Amino acid sequence: MNIPKNLSSYIRVLKLASTPSTEEFSQVSLVAGAGIVLVGLLGFIIFVFMTILPGGA
Predict the structure, then answer these.
(1) Interatomic CA distance for residues 50 and 44, integer angstroms
(2) Which of 16, 36, 42, 52 has the fewest CB atoms within 10 Å of its CB?
(3) CA 33 – CA 39 distance, rounded (Å)
(4) What Rg, from alpha-carbon coordinates, does the chain have?
């Protein structure tokens, strides 16, 4: 295991990384929030269909 080589590559990546701007952070938050809401809505619709359909059949 070559630890110094791995450590130097980690340091290089950390030097290239930067904090996102406020606009970039809000855009990423909006997209992530929309995805969470969409998946939750889809799960709720499936739940409603699974509870209604067996009762009517």
Answers:
(1) 10
(2) 16
(3) 10
(4) 23
Q: Report the distance separating Cα 6 and Cα 3, nearest Å.
A: 5
- Angle ∠(50,51,53) on CA atoms, nearest 5: 70
Q: Hey, is 18 helix, strand or coil? A: coil
Please give the C-alpha separations between residue 1 and each of 4, 6, 13, in angstroms, as whole numbers. Answer: 9, 9, 20
Euclidean distance between CA atoms 56 and 21, whole angstroms: 53
Q: Any residues with CB less than 8 A from the CB of 46 and at least 6 apart, and which?
A: none
